[in-house]
Structures
1.
Amino acid sequence: MANVVVVGAQWGDEGKGKIVDWLSERADVIARFQGGHNAGHTLVIDGEVYKLHALPSGVVRAGKLSIIGNGVVLDPWHLVGEIANIRSQGVSITPETLMIAENTPLILPFHGELDRAREAQNSVAKIGTTGRGIGPCYEDKVGRRVIRVADLADDATLRLRVDRALVHHNALRAGLGLEPIDAEALIADLKAIAPEILQYAAPVWKVLNEHRRAGKRILFEGAQGALLDIDFGTYPYVTSSNVIAGQAATGTGLGPDAIDFVLGIVKAYTTRVGEGPFPTELLDDDGERLGTRGHEFGTTTGRKRRCGWFDACLVRQTCQTSGVSGIALTKLDVLDGFETLKICVGYELNGERYDYLPTAADQQAHCTPIYEEMEGWSESTEGARSWADLPANAIKYVRRVEELIGCPVAMLSTSPEREDTILVTDPFAD
Ligand code: IMP
């Protein structure tokens, strides 16, 4: 059976929610492998709207196993609230349908506080984070002082872990002028939430390997986008996890040979939330138009997204770093009615031409896009369900995107409705 990884191939917000939902209906297991509740997926099923941040998209579908892998950072209080919310919409969530890796790091309240305090300093350090404590929690994981799900099960271990974390954090907080954390109060809070989390704790790597051997279909649900990857993104304006497809293996405990198909989600134009380089950003009426037509406001923070032309150079790069087998192209209809469309095919920097985004921050900031122009289309593509429904110029645009990024279109999404999809290649096909 095929196992599929879904990754965002730009800066996030490519429209993963609908595609992941479409695929999760066909999967047996849906696993998150990185990020945390900085993500925001909106699912619309039979008219009911579900807003998910930390939970895998599979939870809303009966008979599926949803997994939070060790590559995720988990805020236990947020999770309990999110489960309560989703349950109030009539969805059943039990230890049979949701499992959390025992080695998942926990986001604690001081992580969020630290994240927000750093951002509020408004200095050169500002990243434009979601303020959810994602970065500080990953820092603690790598610093070997994070508290993990399994630590909640034993009082003595928990106390040791809290002490270890606070040696670092209370010194840091003193420097930032924040009150020290009271260890006893934190331990009491953690002990109170522990049973709620521990009921879902499992050796996820083992469960997944068993499911794989049993021939079940596994869908790895990525969050954010490859250009926010800690290694391959526009550093330091990135999130703190590996977002690219290789992380599906390390973030769950399945070997990379378990991955049969990598689906890159690609929006027909480009958006970005937060600070950082964005070569094709449009600060004019065209940018406003993309934002308005595309409803480009963040699901998690409500922030207005920056908008720009499609950057084929960047997507070619992310298709390679994630080993993308095929893309799902979304929101083509947002381009309806533009007389001329531009696609970035490379950059110019100091008189030289680049066919990739150079790594150095100052180079990234000064790259000028080289554009290719294409004739737009006046007809509506919204709701198209076959190639025959698309205007000739829209097909030309899609074909040119494929050529430039070096990757075929596997799916084309033409509205938020799940049926409004043109399927070219089924990622789950054996
Ligand atoms: P953090 O993940 O909260 O640390 O934020 C780091 C950067 O990633 C910021 O630019 C955020 O706007 C961006 N980011 C984090 N999560 C998402 C997402 O789900 N969609 C788009 N951007 C995101």
2.
Amino acid sequence: MNEITIIKPDDWHLHFRDQDMLLETVSATARCFARAVVMPNLVPPVTTAALALSYKERILAARPEGSSFTPIMTIYLTDKTSVQDIKDAKAAGVLAAKMYPAGATTNSDSGVNSLESLYPVFEALADNDMLLLIHGEVTQKHIDIFDREKEFIDQHMVKIVDRVPNLKIVFEHITTKDAADFVLSARDGVAATITPQHLLLNRNDMLDGGMRPHNYCLPVLKRSTHQAALRAVVKSGSPKFFLGTDSAPHTKDRKESDCGCAGCYSAWSALELYTQVFDELDALDKLEGFTSFHGADFYGLPRNTESVTLIRKSWEVPGNITLPNGELIVPFFAGKEVAWKLK
Ligand code: NCD
Ligand code: ZN
């Protein structure tokens, strides 16, 4: 097959950042995605309905001329989030709340310290038909960084899923066989997003033959057996798994530093790279479910009606992208060949 037409996809997890950066990030995503779930980890974070609404206005203002791209807004849970905050968010059209364990990842310092005290908020999300989106890693420093996702499942995820049985939960950007197996065997109303980097790469691609800061994201890339498990699960076509790029831009100097930050900016190539993976797996017939149906169905939103076409054509991801303020970003897969291209 040299060409594939699919219903226009949505991105169920990404980071647009703010201000100047929006002109770059919003158009890169709007080139191929109809909607995107926008993560709230700005500095300071988007913790209230009012902050989400003003952020949404800034995103809409950054859309390219004529674009009908729609951002789906989220709020950021902290130790102080109240049931009223959830009701206000619902009234403002916010669909989901994101839970970062404090200190788990980039811009998560204001995240949750005590999960136990958040149960009334989880109940409120369920009562208001909103989703809980979880960054599933423990933050205990003595736990090996490669084991933090599995530990989160054992310590917390099992409990949350069980104690709030009518809450829809997305286990974001899963990276392990443990997480894939957990989601497969979990009750209805539990799903996961998977990024292009976790399907394409494993930790050798970050550490073998030199450190590659542009492949460093959180949760960190795992060993190849986990990569293989994620590839198997998308190939299976299970509706519990859907596209979430976790596109997360950082400037080149913040990535290439003695304490480089986590995140891969994949918006320029993500859809093409997912297509490449499904092609490698001989599973192009499962691509559209993953990119365009499973997420919308899980969120309870209508499927898109427009379509996009990808063609088998090799191209090279640029080495740098220049932001409106002159700063540089090195995109994910910079300088590498991608086998598919958006027509
Ligand atoms: C994300 C970011 O930069 O905001 N970084 C990342 O490595 N994925 C945060 C996140 O989703 O963990
Ligand atoms: Zn993310």
3.
Amino acid sequence: MLVLGIETSCDETAAALVADGVRVRSNVVSSQLDHAAYGGVVPEIAARRHVESLPSVVAAAFDEAGVEWSDIGGIGVTRGPGLVGALLAGWCYGRGASRSLGVPYVGVNHLAAHVHGALMPVLEAGDRVAYPLLALIVSGGHTTLYRLPTEAEFRRAGGTLDDAAGEAFDKVATLLGLGYPGGPIIDRLADGGDAGAVKLPRARLESPFDFSFSGLKAAVRREALRQELEPWVGEGPGCGDHVDSRILDLVASFQRAVLDMLESATDAALRQFPSRGLVVAGGVAANRGLRARMEALAARHDLPLYLSPVELATDNAAMVAGQAHRRLAAGEADTFDQTVRARWPLGA
Ligand code: KG4
Ligand code: ZN
């Protein structure tokens, strides 16, 4: 069955066509650039841009896949968690298309979709995934460890007490004037710095499965003030631009601290909860340093690693279509009286 996926929970307008939940026929993502000037996502602007972009993004997804509306058997739309206005833009579009085509639609949990995205390559290859799994979802909105006793069950093992890891990347980049979103910029700049140059704190929390990044962020700010670092002024550094080496050292040290915390909590959870595989999903899973750490960690535990391919790590609609397919294939559909959910913890 060919499923149209739609994703509008934050600042990416995305549409994708996926066959049988795993074969990606097209995956179109339009990132809204308007938020860069504000250093973060402005909800009203996000919702408006989704409404404007959806028709052309969906048309591009059909074009790229070389199929017609009449070829699809269902529609999957992100129902939550996310920004209400942004979610509603995709929800209403998907619901309208479902009504007019007479095909079923289902609302998908964005976090479950991230996990599905990490599993897609293995499922596409026809390999079986053994449960229980441990999943680290690490993005701009979430940093959470879940246990998955089965494919459909999610039990929260721990999570951030304050900022999400991606949010910390974004805020540190903004405070140093490096641009937005900060994750990919810091990922790149960290290569040029000495990660041992600046001593930064790692949060020590009551639960070894929890995270906290706000103290680290404050320490970066203090360090920038102490060293009287001049924030970068402009659009954010381009590839050939010269960035103060002290800023490079600071972001490299910051990234190492984030990765240390992500790794140690995941390691503790793998020691505590019997797992037959490790899933790493969400936008920060695109980080090269994190990918290397998680590969080494899974190898130490002698476990298969289900690491999101980079194009399925940051927000996209292929993971949404894939996750929707599970329910559509079972003949399930959502009814038209439902609406979006700004908060929607997995397993609730
Ligand atoms: O999953 P995602 O696209 O959206 C949410 O559901 O939040 O994640 C976006 C987050 C942003 O905070 C962005 O800075 C971060 O993922 N991110 C990265 C990288 N690419 C994206 N963080 C670190 N390194 C990267 N390469
Ligand atoms: Zn996401």
